[in-house]
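Task: fold both queries, return tokens.
Query 1:
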Amino acid sequence: KTENLEDIEIAGKLKAVSIESGKLVIAITDESAKTIGEGVIVAVKIDENEDGIDDETESDGRSIFIETSAIGSNSKVFVTPKSKTQQSLAVTEIKNSEGFTVSVENPVEEDVSFDWVIIEEK
């Protein structure tokens, strides 16, 4: 037992049957391999050629691909919208070591911001 919990530091992996914690802090040590972050499905605002793709952002208003090499075949991705939405957000594609796609069924009328976190299952 330690008096100061900041005294414990492990350079490698920690394995345990159960871990009890007051809060979980995730440090991003590699920007290309994030396991937590934010995303935005951007609404189509300018579409002069009416192809359903925003002329400036190239967004389809229905999806966004989040790049992270931390994703794998056993990954679970949890998304949480930051505001009320009229449709559900879903992780519709995972590309191992590349990233994942978050989508909605119909194009959004306003930008939809969300948080995401990846949990690896063993």
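Query 1 returned. Query 2:
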Amino acid sequence: MFKKIAIFIFFSFEVFAKPLIFGLNPYLPSNQIEKLHEKLRLHLETKLQTPVILTTSKNYKEQIELLETGKIDIAAMSPNLYYEARQMKKPFIYLATVTKNDNYKNPKPGYKGVIFTLKGSGIKTFEDLKGKRFGFTDRASTSGYVCPRNAMLKHGIDPDKDLGYSFLLKKHSKILSALLQNSIDAGATYDRVLQEAILIYGDVFHLLYETPLLPYEAYVVSNKMDKQLLEKIREALLNFEDSDAIGEAPARFEVIEESLYDQLCI
């Protein structure tokens, strides 16, 4: 029975179809991220009649190298990473921007970066961050590094000189853990992490700073991709909708002005 099913699945795609490698950015552990994108993977596989394989890069910037060298075919790039790719004039073509739902399944077109701490920490202003331990995520992270550093500089704090110590914790979930374990005094992440933490731990956090609304990940491909396949992928993305999606799972896609990625953390 298993052999019959396997044969059917194989021949449901084009014979000898080359799999499409879909690269995700590592803002969460890879098993979590890939599980969140499984419904989208199946949708793309069905629409394109081609096997689609999910993979998560080791770090944010590796995505640029993987896409440029053809080791992945599609990349879901964080806002800042896509901005950097545009600044470097990388040969990438924008397809669409993902949008997500909140925990009540309401459409959420973007997200916000936050700097937060625990109530009772004594940190109420940017000035209070001087000499304190601060948690960032990855240097290419929009909400976990770029925006909070920009915010500090605008408020007269040099993160390289004024912070007592700064940590690169890589994953957003580790910012929350480190704060609760008193390993850091304050940290940077995105709004959903803080919102979900409040639901679990209660009103124990102090929001120090919040960014304007930021666009979600840009889905991009190399300009070497066959134009017909490129348009099929874009069409498949724009036809995707998961009204039951919550949290970080993709809900739908839209095409936005790429220049919005050039105006992050302003």
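Both queries returned. Flag for query 2: The mean pLDDT is 92.
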